Amino acid sequence: MAINTSFDVYLKSFTAYLEVEKNFSKHTVKAYKSDILSFFIWCNYLRPDKVTYDKLREYLYFIQKFNYKKTTVSRKIAAIRSFFKYLYKTQMIAVNPVENLSSPKKPKSLPKFLTDDEMLKLLENVNTDTPAGLRNKAIMELLWATGMRVSELSGLNFDDLNLEENEITVFGKGAKERIVLVSERAKKYLQQYIDFARPLIMKDSNQPTTDSSPVFVNKTGYRLQTKSIRNAINEVVDKIQLPKHVTPHMFRHSFATKMIENGADLRVVQELLGHASISNTQIYTHISSQHLIHEYQKAHPHA
Predict the structure, then answer these.
(1) What is the mean pLDDT of the segment spanning 178-194?
(2) Most CB atoms closer than 10 Å: which of 9, 29, 97, 249?
């Protein structure tokens, strides 16, 4: 059955809202669209203004049969809730059917991070014999030094850099602007990349370099995407045979954990990470406590 024209308009408008105003990643936008489409396929493309709270509850009961993880169910509910809240806010529908819709509680799990030895081994084994290798070295040093998200790093332009003050302006979730601080070590590798490696990567490109140009580029001169950054990290992980599944986000977790371990104020870490709520930052205190217990049990003879 073809999608109702009005629904198609609603979905395109909502997608643009997620991409532009909410600054959601492409992965999240794709997942939200899929979740919304699944719901409307299930209800035979019922007009959005005809969807009721009872219909939504019926759908939630339906998807429970598939034994989805709680996180998956929570995301599906979040997608549907966001969609109808947006339609209500923009006056596309007169009644918000999700107003009292509740989500299952997400299971609490501690973020995974790299130890000091693992991080050092990873950073020291980046092959810097090529321009792309120098670029990747700068990227990983910067992720570790600043705790920024990989999407934030990929989105950096030259006018975001203030290396004289060891500062970088990043735009996080919801297009929120914040300042992250750069260590001298990371600044050194970033400057080397900009001065020597980037011109070589750009040599066959017709893209001019301006203040609005991307800092990190691929061989065609266009912005380096997050997938390429993940691949670069995976190459080093495979090379050193690190027995962990390492993601760019683990650099962020490792940064936050080390800051807390070394006594940084929780509010400072919250500001550097760009967390909207202090509760999102507090989880790193639990990681540090567990790590402390582990180290004690490993080192003390009577533990």
Answers:
(1) 97
(2) 97
pLDDT in tens, 254-282: 999 999 888 889 899 999 999 988 888 88
Q: Is 173 a catalytic residue?
A: yes
Question: Which tokens go with 12?
Answer: 């395109």
Cβ contact 163:190 at 8 Å: yes
Query: pLDDT tens, 196-210?
Result: 999 999 998 888 899
Q: Is the pLDDT of residue 93 over 80?
A: yes
Catalytic residue from among 75, 149, 187, 258: 149
Q: Are strands 161-162 and 167-171 parallel, antiparallel or unpaired?
A: antiparallel
Question: Annotated catalytic residue: which of 22, 85, 219, 249?
Answer: 249
Instruction: Give yes or no for a contact between 95 and 48, defined as CB atoms under 8 angstroms apart.
Output: no
Whether the predicted model's global pTM rises above the 0.70 cut: no
Q: Is 284 a catalytic residue?
A: yes
CATH number assigned to the domain covering 116-299: 1.10.443.10
**Could you say which DSSP state residue 162 is in?**
E
Catalytic residue among 55, 173, 219, 286: 173
Using DSSP's 3-state secondary structure scheme, residue 129 falls into coil
**47 tagged catalytic:** no
Domain boundaries, the chain: 5-89, 116-299
Contacts of 302 (CB under 8 A, 6+ apart): none
